[in-house]
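Researcher: Next sequence.
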Amino acid sequence: MAMQVLKLTSGDPYGKDKFYQYALEPMEASPELAEAIEKELSLWEFHFERVEVYDHDEYGKERSVSEGKPVSVLLDKAMPVVWNGRLVAVKRKDALFFIPSGKGIGTLSETLWSESSSRWDRYEVENISIVKNAASEDPVRYEEEGDNPYHTVAGVDPKAKQVSIASGAVVVSSDAFENCNELLSLFIPASVKEIGEVPFSDCKALESITVDEKNPVFKGVGGCLINIQEGFLIVGTADAQIPANEGIEVIGQAAFSERKMGHIAIPEGVKRIDWAAFTHSKIDSVVLPKTLQKVDSFAFEYGELGAIYFTGTKEDWKSIHIGIRNKLLYSAPKYYYSEEKPTEEGNFWHYGENGEIMIWTL
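Model: Next structure:
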C-alpha cells in the first residue's frame, strides 16, 4: 500500500505562518519519496506527554503528570507533510510540527489546552517535543535562482558534523548555520561570493575551515575564514592562528565566541574588534595590536582571560575606544610592549629569541 502524505500547497514551509494560512491536500507518495520520508523520520524522536491539572478550589491544586515517551509518528495518527518533494513537517490533529530536512529543529514543543467549565476546573495539557538524533543524509538545503538549483545555502542540519557546500552555490544566508553547534568541518567552494552577516555564530565546535583556492572573495587560512576583499575575519576555530599577511582590519561579530582557547595573537593592522567577538570564551592570553582603534561592546565579556599583551604603550591603550561590557579587558593583567628593558616600574613585555612572550623584570 502506498504511503499517504499531505502536500503543502500554500504557507511558509518553514513554520513562520499561522496555522490557518496553510493549505494541505492528500496525495500518495512515490516509492522514492516514501523511502526518503522513512529515512528522515527514523532520525527523529517524537515525545507525547499528557499533563492533567485539577483545580479543586481557590486554595489549592492537584497535578497529575504522565512521562512522555518516544513513539512512532506514523503509528500515532500523524501524517507526513511534503513540500517540493521533501519532508518539511508532520501533522497531528490540528497542529503542524515543522521538521524540514536540511533546516532541522533541535527541539520543538507545542502545548494544546482544553478546559471544562465546571467549578472543579480540569485542564488537559498535551506537550509534544520533537528531538533529532542524527544528521539528515543531505544536511544542506539550497534555494534555487534561475537555472541554478544550488544558488543559496538557506539551511544546514544542526546535527551535521561535516558540511561541504555544493559547487554552484553563490550565497550563504545569514541564518543558514543556525544552531549548528556540532559542526566540525566546513568546505566553501570557489563559487561562493556572498556570506550573510554572522552566519557561523553557533558553530563553536569548528575545527577545520577550507576554502577552494580559486575563490576570489574568501580564503581559509590558519583556522580562519577571511573576506580578503574587505579585510574581514568572519569566524575562527578554537586553535586558530590569525595570519599577519592577509590584510585583516576587522575581527567580525562573534568570530571567536564560546571558544576555549590557549594563546591567540591578533596581528598588527587590525583596527576593530566587533561585538561579542570573544564573548563567553576562555582564553589563556591574547596579544592586542597597537593599531587597534575600537573594541565594540561585549567583545570580551562573560568568560575568562588570563593576560593581555598590548604591542603599544599605556598612552596608545588609552586612545582605544572600548565599548560597554568588556569586563575582561579591565580585570585581566595587562602588559605593555617594550623592546628594551624598562627603567620605570610597571608591567612590560617583549618577544624572546624564538618569538615567545617574555616579561621584563626590574
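Model: The chain has three helices and 31 strands. The chain has two domains: 4-132, 140-359.
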